[in-house]
Amino acid sequence: MYNTDSICISKHLSLEQLISNVTALDALLDSGYKVSRGPSGWYEYDDRVFDGINAALTLLGHDVDYLEHRDSLSAESISSANQEQLSTWFTLMTRGEHWTEGYVARAIEAGELQAITRRLVALLAG
Q1: Are 116 and 89 in contact (CB under 8 A)?
Q2: pLDDT, tens digit, for every residue of 107-126?
Q3: pTM of the prediction?
Q4: Residue 37: left if φ>0, alpha if ψ -120 to 50, beta else—which one?
Q5: Contact by Cβ (8 Å): 35, 105
Q6: Any residues with CB less than 8 A from the CB of 72 and at least 6 apart, and which?
Q7: What is the C-alpha separation between 97 and 71, in angstroms, rounded?
Q8: pLDDT higher at 4 or 40
Q9: Can you give 74-121 as a three-state secondary structure string?
Q10: Chain centroid to CA 33
Q11: Which among 7, 18, 22, 28 is least surrounded, fewest beta carbons within 10 Å?
């Protein structure tokens, strides 16, 4: 399941650290975390949000064809999502935020990020 060829595993973070970042994101979201806006009006995310998303993508691999795959995703399918589908979900988080400021904040508010993170944690637990 893991993308063991990732440079992050060999150069920066161990497999255990990546899994820890994903579980830290899950715990943060489970605590009722809400994204706030700073004085500039920009969303200010807790570091654990993108640390967890990026760790998930390191473990799963990025979905380079996420635009083709996104229409096949639904909130109802998260509880049974496989590695490839989760890769698409997490890729959408990073790309969505890149193109639309607040994309991840809306995914947090809707419970979408928590659901996909929880599904990944379940798969990691095996």
Answers
A1: yes
A2: 999 999 999 999 999 999 98
A3: 0.88
A4: beta
A5: yes
A6: 85
A7: 18
A8: 40
A9: CHHHHHHCCHHHHHHHHHHHHHHHHHCCCHHHHHHHCCHHHHHHHHHH
A10: 15
A11: 7
Q: 46 exposed, middle or buried (CB, 10 Å; 0-12, 13-18, 19+)?
A: middle
Task: Please give the angle made by the CA atoms of 98, 3 and 15, to the nearest 5 degrees.
Answer: 95
pLDDT at 4 over 50: no
- CA–CA gap between residue 21 and residue 49 (Å, rounded): 9
What single string gives the DSSP state of each residue in 35-79? Answer: -EE-TTS-EE--HHHHHHHHHHHHHH---TTHHHHGGG--GGGGG
In angstroms, the CA 107 to CA 105 distance is 5
How far is the C-alpha of 110 from the C-alpha of 96, rounded, in Å? 15
Q: What does the angle CA 74 – CA 76 – CA 78 come to, to the nearest 5 degrees?
A: 80
Q: Is the sign of the CA dihedral 120, 124, 125, 126 positive or negative? A: positive
Rg (CA), the chain: 14
Tokens encoding 12:
């920066």
Q: Residue 5: pLDDT above 70?
A: no
